[in-house]
């Protein structure tokens, strides 16, 4: 009786996203699912694929708390289920003026059917080509990266994490939303004016449906770009600040004028989310106050 029961309980385990600490997580994954350390690490770095095609459900249930704690995101499905097909989003940004027509022409040659204008490249995600199959997404991204003045960023949908922003001028009290995001473990901590960070697609869908009155919009963390503005002297003297900013290409008059105005002197532009956090930390280390602004146009 035992063998048939195991057969009925057998499941397929699928990896949903790249693991940030693949080298650390590889050991437990290899142990639980009968892989070599190299196989487990490569799979975790790739971020998708079948970890185990047929394994007892009880064994997976025992492993899940530890896997979740070390950042391994998995899905459990029937052992005979077809492998899920990954879909991708592609963000395109123009880094140089006047290249929009070249990009649009290239996209049309690749078979992109939607009508695109230069204005479509503005916005917090740039031009977004959504829900692409992997092969097409890779072809598009490769072609765009060969063009001058274009930035192409590709993100698998299962790996996507979103930050949540509220549109200006709604006049709504965001306290209930903030409390709910805190309960979900998505309270704001990051650059810019996000009110919630690190939402996966499931949590994002839930929050948008629960709070439609707040005029919320979400931006994939992979597609975000930030400007950093200097907002104060921090712990530096005016002379020290002037010396520092001189090395950044700013003259004394420019520095004085910027510090007396709002929103302050823009000292970095077009930073990825990760780079913005690092720059903010670096500026804080030398005693400067900076503000991150999400680029929305």
Structural class: alpha+beta
Mean pLDDT: 85
The H/E string reads: HEHHEHEEHEHEEHEHEEHHEHE
Helix count from the secondary structure assignment: 11
The best one-word shape is: globular
- Provide the spatial order of strands within the biggest beta sheet: 2-1-3
Biggest sheet statistics: 3 strands, antiparallel
Strand coverage percent: 25-35%
What would you note in describing this structure?
The protein has 297 residues and is α+β, with helices and mostly antiparallel strands. Helices cover 38% and strands 26% of the residues. It contains eleven helices and twelve strands. The protein has helices at 2-9, 22-33, 37-46, 57-69, 100-109, 134-145, 175-183, 201-210, 238-246, 252-259, 273-285; strands at 10-15, 49-56, 74-78, 87-94, 127-133, 150-156, 162-166, 196-199, 216-220, 225-232, 265-272, 289-294. Strands 2-1-3 form a three-stranded antiparallel beta sheet. It has a three-stranded antiparallel beta sheet with strand order 5-4-6, covered by helices on one side. A three-stranded antiparallel beta sheet has the order 8-7-9. The termini are far apart. Residues 1-7 have low confidence and may be disordered.
Strand and helix layout:
Elements: H1 2-9, E1 10-15, H2 22-33, H3 37-46, E2 49-56, H4 57-69, E3 74-78, E4 87-94, H5 100-109, E5 127-133, H6 134-145, E6 150-156, E7 162-166, H7 175-183, E8 196-199, H8 201-210, E9 216-220, E10 225-232, H9 238-246, H10 252-259, E11 265-272, H11 273-285, E12 289-294
Antiparallel strand pairs: 1-2, 1-3, 4-5, 4-6, 7-8, 7-9, 10-11, 10-12
Helix pairs in contact: 2-3, 2-4
């Amino acid at each position: 009786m035992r063998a048939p029961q195991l057969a009925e309980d057998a499941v397929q385990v699928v990896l949903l996203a790249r693991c940030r600490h693949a080298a650390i997580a590889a050991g437990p994954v290899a142990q639980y699912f009968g892989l070599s350390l190299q196989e487990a690490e490569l799979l975790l770095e790739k971020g998708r694929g079948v970890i185990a095609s047929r394994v007892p459900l009880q064994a997976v249930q025992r492993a899940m708390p530890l896997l979740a704690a070390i950042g391994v995101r998995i899905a459990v499905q029937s052992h005979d289920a077809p492998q899920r097909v990954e879909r991708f989003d592609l963000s395109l940004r123009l880094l140089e003026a006047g290249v929009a027509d070249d990009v649009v022409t290239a996209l049309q040659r690749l078979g992109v059917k939607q009508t695109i204008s230069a204005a479509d490249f503005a916005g917090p995600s740039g031009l977004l080509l959504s829900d692409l199959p992997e092969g097409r997404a890779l072809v598009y991204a490769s072609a765009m990266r060969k063009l001058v003045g274009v930035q192409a960023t590709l993100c698998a949908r299962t790996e996507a994490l979103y930050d949540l922003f509220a549109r200006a001028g709604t006049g709504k009290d965001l306290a209930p939303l903030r409390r709910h995001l805190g309960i979900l473990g998505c309270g704001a901590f990051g650059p810019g004016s996000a009110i919630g960070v690190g939402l996966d697609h499931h949590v994002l869908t839930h929050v948008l449906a629960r709070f439609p009155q707040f005029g919320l919009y979400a931006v994939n963390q992979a597609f975000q770009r930030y400007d950093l503005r200097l907002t104060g002297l921090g712990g530096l003297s005016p002379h020290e600040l002037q010396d520092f900013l001189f090395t950044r290409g700013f003259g004394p008059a420019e520095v004085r004028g910027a510090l007396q105005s709002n929103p302050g002197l823009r000292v970095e532009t077009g930073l990825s989310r990760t780079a913005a956090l690092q720059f903010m930390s670096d500026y804080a280390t030398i005693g400067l106050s900076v503000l991150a602004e999400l680029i929305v146009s």
